[in-house]
């Protein structure tokens, strides 16, 4: 009973619990029930101590990790007790355990007071951890934005990231220094960066055929005084126009291709009027064969691809206008109107060319004025008579010239 009582007293002391009086006297009752009662109580207290150890070990492990991550120096007595509380894993068979159940200068122990203090310390460090993470998040976002703005290389970004670790004050200081450095670079390069964004905006306008009216929306960005705010506005304008261009590129590709084909159609029509080119096509030289092959490819593109592109554009533009609720403007004009006008003008020119050809053939079949059929026959008869007279004998000719009345 004394052995059991002494272990009970030691566990209660470690747990910070008062000694229970009923388990003090071990001399009055030495019966078996009394021994059983002592042993049962000891087992219960042992279980309580085991659970307390596990709870304290878990808390101490968490706090140690937080202190190391936050790089908090162990200056308080409690922090030093926490940092020294755990035995090395190798000495504890692979699992962590407390150096001592009792509180010492280098161990926190398993008392209820120690449990409460370590719990409070964990909560404090978690608050500090959140504050540090929030601060580093803000710094990181600002640094990342400047990296993008300044086109900092992946290697340089990786080098800085590798130079900082954990959530300590040194990490925050390093982030603040990097942010300050990048802000200085930004100020030095601000004019060039604004100029680059403006050039990008102009390129996107040209790609989309933006009218002067549409470009006027960004006049402040294009003409304003250079500043960091203006750079931000320019970047927002670039992002907006890039999104618009991405949505319009399928249509713009059709517009560009149709422009190529209509220009080819016009040049082909002019080329076919060239007598030298016509003569080349009828030749048998290698150059003639190449010209004929090129002509076939050109006519195929004009006759097959151009109508398909034109019809596809009509469908796409009508769908776009229906969804957007406004006309699709290109180079200051509704493109559908331009398309229809170009097709109508081409068809009109083609019909006029056909009429001209018909008129030319008709004119070729008509006789020249003063050389009709009757006159032609008369001249032919006179010529025959002249040739006939020249072949007659002289006597006959003289007789024909004698006046019968003589």
Task: Characterize the structure shown.
The chain is mainly alpha-helical. Helices cover 75% and strands 1% of the residues. The chain has 14 helices and two strands, in the order αααααααααααββααα. It has helices spanning 2-15, 32-70, 77-83, 112-149, 154-163, 169-208, 212-215, 219-223, 228-271, 275-281, 286-324, 335-365, 373-391, 394-401, and strands at residues 329-330, 333-334. A two-stranded antiparallel ribbon has the order 1-2. α6 (169-208) packs parallel to α9 and α9 (228-271) crosses α11. It starts with a helix and ends in a 5-residue tail after the last helix.
Kindly report the spatial arrangement of strands forming the biggest sheet: 1-2
Number of strands: 2
Give the CA-CA distance, first to last residue: 199 Å
- The number of distinct helices, counting runs of at least 4 residues, comes to 14
Principal-axes geometry comes out as: elongated
Order of helices and strands: HHHHHHHHHHHEEHHH
- DSSP helix fraction: over 70%
Class inferred from helices and paired strands:
mainly alpha
Characterize the largest beta sheet: strand count, sense, and whether it forms a barrel.
2 strands, antiparallel
Mean pLDDT: 83
| Uncertain runs | 371-406
Regarding quaternary structure, what we see is: single chain
What value does the Rg take, in angstroms?
52 Å
> How much of the polypeptide forms β-strand, as a percent range?
under 5%
